[in-house]
Amino acid sequence: MMFFVGILFFIIIACFILIWFISTYNHYQYYIIRINEAETNIDSILRKRFDLLNKSIGIIKANCDVEGEVLEIIVKLRSRKLTNFDLDRQLYEAINEFNHYRELYEDLRKSESFMKIEIALNETEAEIIAARKYYNDIITDYNKLITRFPSNIVGKICKYEYKPYFDGKDMTDDILNDFKL
User: Fold this and answer.
1) Rounded CA gap, 156 and 178, in Å?
2) For residue 176, what pLDDT is reported?
């Protein structure tokens, strides 16, 4: 009789552990889906920015007497495959160059098509800020699961890893600073 009580107790404990594991695993999956959704949103905004800057090259060339390549960063990005982190940094450099042309050439400020691109770029800035905040909020919750006990056990079993925040900084700066501590 005692033997059956022991086995029954063991089966009940194993069921509770299995239910907890499945629940925690599903929690991870929920965050992974949200992270993928946020990354897709960021990707579409970055592609929109890239397309706007790419369109502006012809407008700048048509309205200005420019020697050499216009928005050279964009021209180089056409054939490269970059992460969203890297693409975001490169596009900010291109936007700075875009703004530099706007400052230098009065004719660009009078061009309706150039102004439409400028307005659209400003709108994408607000979108990217919101998308970054959403992504970073999800990453915060996900990283809490990775580091907190007992959910970190499921994370280690499933080989989930800590994810970096999308803050627009050079990712190598964070890695180097971590080693300096």
Assistant:
1) 22
2) 39
Q: Enter the pTM of the model.
A: 0.76
How many residues does this entry show for the chain?
181
pLDDT value at 30 more than 80 = yes
Q: In the numeric block, which tokens belong to residue 125?
A: 């800035």
Domain membership flag for residue 179: no
C-alpha–C-alpha distance, residues 175 and 35, integer Å: 22
Domain hosting residue 144, numbered range: 45-171
In angstroms, the CA 57 to CA 15 distance is 63
Maximal CA-CA distance, the chain: 96
Residue 131 counted as domain residue: yes
Scan for tokens 């029954």, then name that residue.
8
- Which tokens sit at 112? 């309706």
Return the beta strands (E) in 19-157 as ranges: none
